[in-house]
Amino acid sequence: MNATVGPFEATQMTTPANLDLESRCEHTLELLLTHRGNPSAEVERVLADDPQYVPGHCLRAALIVRADKASGRSRLADSLAAIEAACPDVRDRMHRHAAAARAWLDGDPALAAERYGAIVGDWPSDLLALAVAHALDFHLGQRRIMRDRIARVLPAWTAAMPGYASVLAMYAFSLEENGEYDLAEQMAKRALALDARHAGAIHVVAHVMEMQGRVSEGLAFLSAYESAWQDGTDLSIHLAWHRALFQLDANDAKPALATYDARISVARPSDMTALADASALLWRLKLRNIDVSVRWRQLADRWEKLALTGARPFYIVHAMMAFAATSRTEPAAQALGALQRIDTADPSPPLTEDALALPFCEALLAFASGDYRSCIVSLTRVRHIANQCGGSVAQCDVVHLTFTEAAIRAGALRLAEALVAERVAERPASRLNRLLRRRLRVESQHRAAA
Question: What is the pTM of this model?
Answer without folding.
Answer: 0.93
